[in-house]
């Protein structure tokens, strides 16, 4: 037992020192001077940011409630040509601007279509081959 401990300690020291010498594991390390620099990021030419106007209020000066309203209902940001055409085709000019307030009103009447309509709307898409009738 007395001889086992010094032998194990000696073998451990030999193994640890073998990893430190050049004759041990041959590792190739990256050359830090051979690293190439990446090209800087550029803003695309069609980016739709408008330059600041002299005398206009800064965006940081707008209150948080106004920023929340702009985020939810759309602010004064310009629309792209494709978005403008889609809104024109959908009839944006005939939409009631206060419709969100009317829908949330407690006196707005709604019709309960029942469970059957909910099942039809929630049904998976397809030709119906996998459809099954379930009874409650």
Automatic annotation (TrEMBL):
Location of region: Disordered: 45-136
Matches recorded under InterPro entries: DUF3035 (IPR021395)
Domain of life: Bacteria
PROSITE patterns hit by this protein: PROKAR_LIPOPROTEIN
One Pfam family of this chain: DUF3035
Protein name: DUF3035 domain-containing protein
Organism: Stakelama saccharophila
